[in-house]
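Let's practice the habit of predicting before peeking. Look at the sequence and jot down your guess about where helices and strands might fall. Then scroll down.
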Amino acid sequence: MIARYTLPEMGALWTDEFKFKTWLQVEIEAARAMAKYKIIPMAAFKTIEKKARFDINRINEIEKEVNHDVIAFLTSVGEFVGEDAKYLHYGMTSSDILDTALALLMKRAAGIIDKKIITSLKLIRSLALKYKMTPCIGRTHGALAEPTTAGLKFALWYTELKRAQERFNHAAEAVAVGKISGAVGNYANLDPRIEAAVCKRLGLKAAEVSTQVVQRDRHAQYITALALLASSLEKFATEIRNLQRTEIGEMAEGFAKGQKGSSAMPHKKNPITAERVTGIARLLRGYALSAMENIPLWHERDIAHSSVERVIIPDANIIADYDLEKFIEILRGLVINEKRMLENIYHRGGVVFSQRLLLKLAGPVGSREKAYRLVQRNGLAAAEGKGLFIELVKSDKEIHKYLSDVEIDSCFDLAYYTKHVDKIFKRVFGK
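Done guessing? Here is the structure:
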């Protein structure tokens, strides 16, 4: 699935080339700060800034021998810089580069993802306004309940996605933290001003305190926020999948000209994109658990988290971005069948208006329990195919003792169920 999907903006972030460019960016900024505070010669920094390069093939070749990716990287860069390479990585430890660069990559990835969340919100808002007063049936326990509107469904999605965006942006801010604090985080061979200067130049915050690494609760928060975002997208996709079922037919994914739904059954139109969104959420929830497992490292650091993060952080960002891309595709092509929505409301003669009838009947009858039984017996009869609910009610002599046909008809008025939609929309979208 991911292999066939190309998104240069997100995908490029997680290539070896871009990773090493980001590592180099951190090293150059560290050298700049050290030169500023006269820890290394300014001339050495100028040489580093001018000559620092890397060769991926050479890095891979060196790593085979030394079995250490950062040392291999620094050796390759040093071959371009020359004698002044002795001032590269001065007083630093590997994680000073790795964690600061990772924070920068995750901040950039978060910006890409947030743009797609914003696009999704705009599309949902548009659907909510378009179908604001379009009647449809609400369902509880999977069964017909009472009338609502399609617009309210979309308004609900909008508020949930807004919460997901807020959580994600908060998590993205929490993970945008660098550290240049040395082997155990105590700045023994570094000046804290170096860290402050580097992080400021890179647009990151400096960790208030660190060990050899930035603490992994930050990364777990970020991946968990992605998992929550994907779970909400799954919820929306599941609603579309359910409403696309043949016997419901109220909503469906777009179906392109020439598209085929089934290799065996030519009549099929399957909600394959919504199903894909569902599957991605399952994967991201698994990644969230892995990210949480990375939090308890031994003492000032071990590398149990490293192999996990090499998989879950690039993958989580890439598939979350893909997930949003597919969700946007669904929203843009979404088919709304207003006619079918109305038909489903009046299924079996409008049994969904039973509560309105109950409330209308309870006063004249003098007992809610008795009124309930009168309405229920007609509702169950309609469900058993013995007639249409409204006709059964009108032919019920006992009900007719208390309500006229006109009063019964008033209980089947859809406007009764939409009278507060404007107030809800004002709360969600403002004026």
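How did you do? The first strand starts at residue 135 and ends at 140.
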